[in-house]
Each structure stands twice: as structure tokens, then as C-alpha cells.
Please model this.
Amino acid sequence: VNNVIEACCVFLERQLDPTNAIGIANFAEQHGCRNLYRKANQFIIQHFSQICQEEEFLQLSAMQLVTLVRKDELNVQEEQEVYNAVLKWVKYNEEIRGPKMEPILHAVRCQYLTPSFLREQMKNCDILKKVPACREYLAKIFKDLTLHKKPIVKERTPNTPRVIYIAGGFFRHSLDILEGYNVDDRSWTQLAKLIVPRSGLGGAFLKGMFYAVGGRNNSPGNRAATSESRSVPV
Model:
């Protein structure tokens, strides 16, 4: 029997994707499949941006949602993704979930939202207007941010893959290629092409975007490529 259970767990692990990861995690927890439960939760944390777009996410209990968004390693580019996911969850059944929003909002690291975003939410979000405690909580954070107070909560530390990016060409050979080498699994991935072929460029990766700056375009016409362009890594 144990061999059958193990085989089923291996099969389910291979089927993990954003549409079913929460369901598989719940199944694994109910049946005591610890390794599968751990793998499913790792997948959920790593792919949160996709997970929160799925129907399963909207079926989470309030306690499950709080546990998830409290994770230090939640893989998001900015905290606004987490806030918007919570708001989406509340709106799915606002009558029942609205009164539960305050403790959930405290699990979001609102101290890392921008003042302009907070101002817009306090002004226009209908749910916040119905839950004064949440609006007051965000107002206090907004005030602290405008006074440049240091956040009392730490930033998230997502366990993202280590990737080396290769962009453009060299010397007189200007190219528009952008590729990524995953150091952990030793694999190459071809990414979106640069807007302008370049050689001798500088590059930087920030919040999910690869920025290519400067360099020279030695393709016909020999135009200097000094403007900034960006590509979204896959």
C-alpha cells in the first residue's frame, strides 16, 4: 500500500501547475503525504503571481490565506501583488469576507506599498470605505511613509533562481539576443529579444525586468544605441 501511495504522490507532484497546486496541497495534507504537501507549498510560494489568478486561490479559507501571505519567501516582484490578491479574495464574497479583512490586511506587508498607491486605495476602494479599521490602518502606514519612518517589518526574501543574463553581441557584431543561464539547474532559456540590436552594452536586472543600457548598434546604418530598453524575462 505504501508503494502505491508513494507512486500517486510522485505522479501528483509531476502534475503541479498554478491551476491545481492548492488542491494538491490540501489533498496531501488530508492524507498525510508530507513530502507532497511540502513540494506543493513550495510551488505555491514560488508561483504566487500565477496562483492568485486561479479559482482555487479564491476558495482558500481566511486562515489559509493569512498563512500564505505571511510567508517571507513569497515570490512577488512588489507587495502590491499581495495586496491586490487579498482584495480580489475579499471581493469574491464581500458580504462574508469583508468583516474578516482587517487581520488579513495585517498579514500583508503594507509598509512596502508606495504612498501614491495607498492614497489611491484610501480614496477609491469601496471595500476600505466599508471597513473603517482597515482604512485607518493604511492611513497610519501612509503617514509613517511620508515621514520616512523605517518599516517595522522586514522585506520578503523570495527564493528566486540564480540566473546569469547574456545580452547583445560583441565588438562589431550587434545582436538582439537575450538569454538566461540558470546556475541551479544548469539550463539555458531564450528570452524576449532586445528592442534594438546592441554590442558593448550595460545591463541590470530589477524587479523582474532586464534593463539594457547604452552600447552601439553596428547593424547597417551604424547608429549609436544609447537609449534604454527593457525585456521581461520568462
Remarks:
- The first helix runs from residue 2 to 14.
